[in-house]
């Protein structure tokens, strides 16, 4: 009862998509300005039964997950580049990645956990002599699956 009450205190207005962070194996190696691709889809298999012409049986198949794309301003850290570069040399480093959503007060609201992620694409920044915007690069990750977790609001309220 108390947990439901505490969860009700966090309104939909507080869940702004701009308040997020990305944790890669417990480290925050960059400030990301955009994170896209949190998705999953169940493949549907059809089975046509002989003598039954009114419909097809629809059966759930495998679950597939979309790749996660992270875009950030170019920083002094080489960690993400080194991770991608190791992949290009055949060294596969799977890491756990979490996308964390924060409320306006800075408290964690929700966490999307990706298991066994590794980079599949890197794109460097575009440069133009007259441009004034920040140089942005992107890293695309594939992974084995997503789980969703929420912090225990009752414990947070009591501490």
Summarize the structure.
With 159 residues, the chain is α+β, with helices and mostly antiparallel strands. The chain contains 3 helices and 9 strands, in the order αβββββαββββα. The chain has a single domain (2-42, 55-158), classed as Roll (Pnp Oxidase, Chain A), CATH 2.30.110.20.
How would you describe what is shown here?
This protein is of the alpha+beta class and 159 residues long. The strands form two sheets. Strands 1, 2, 5, 6, 7, 8 and 9 form a seven-stranded antiparallel beta sheet that branches. A two-stranded antiparallel ribbon has the order 3-4. A hairpin with a 5-residue loop joins strand 6 and strand 7 (108-123). It contains three helices and nine strands; from the N terminus they run αβββββαββββα. The model has no long low-confidence stretch (mean pLDDT 84). The chain has helices at residues 2-9, 79-88, 153-158; strands at 20-24, 32-36, 40-47, 57-65, 68-73, 95-102, 108-123, 136-142, 145-149. It has one domain (2-42, 55-158): Pnp Oxidase, Chain A (Roll). The chain is extended, with a radius of gyration of 21 Å.
The CATH level-2 architecture is identified as Roll
Question: Helices and strands: which structural class?
Answer: alpha+beta
Distance between the termini: 18 Å
- Unreliable sequence segments: none
Whole-number count of domains: 1
Mean pLDDT: 84
Q: Measured on Cα atoms, how large is the radius of gyration?
A: 21 Å
Q: Count helical runs.
A: 3
Q: CATH top level?
A: Mainly Beta
| Main beta sheet | 7 strands, antiparallel
In the CATH scheme, what's the topology name?
Answer: Pnp Oxidase, Chain A
Strand content: 35-45%
State the share of residues found in helices, binned by percent: 10-25%
CATH superfamily: Hcp1-like
Could you give the order of the helices and strands?
HEEEEEHEEEEH
């Amino acid at each position: 009862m108390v947990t439901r009450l505490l969860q009700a205190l966090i309104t939909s207005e507080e869940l702004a998509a701009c308040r997020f962070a990305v944790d890669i194996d417990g480290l925050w190696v960059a400030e990301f300005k955009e994170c896209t691709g949190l998705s999953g889809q169940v493949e549907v298999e059809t089975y046509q039964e002989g003598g039954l012409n009114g419909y097809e049986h629809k059966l759930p198949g495998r679950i597939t997950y979309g790749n996660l794309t992270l875009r950030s301003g170019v920083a002094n850290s080489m960690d993400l580049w080194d991770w991608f570069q190791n992949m290009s040399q055949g060294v596969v480093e799977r890491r756990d990645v979490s996308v964390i959503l924060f409320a306006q007060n800075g408290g964690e609201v929700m966490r999307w956990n990706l298991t066994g992620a590794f980079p599949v694409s890197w794109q460097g920044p575009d440069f133009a002599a007259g441009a004034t915007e920040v140089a942005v690069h992107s890293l695309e990750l594939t992974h084995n699956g997503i789980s969703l977790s929420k912090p225990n609001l009752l414990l947070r309220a009591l501490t």
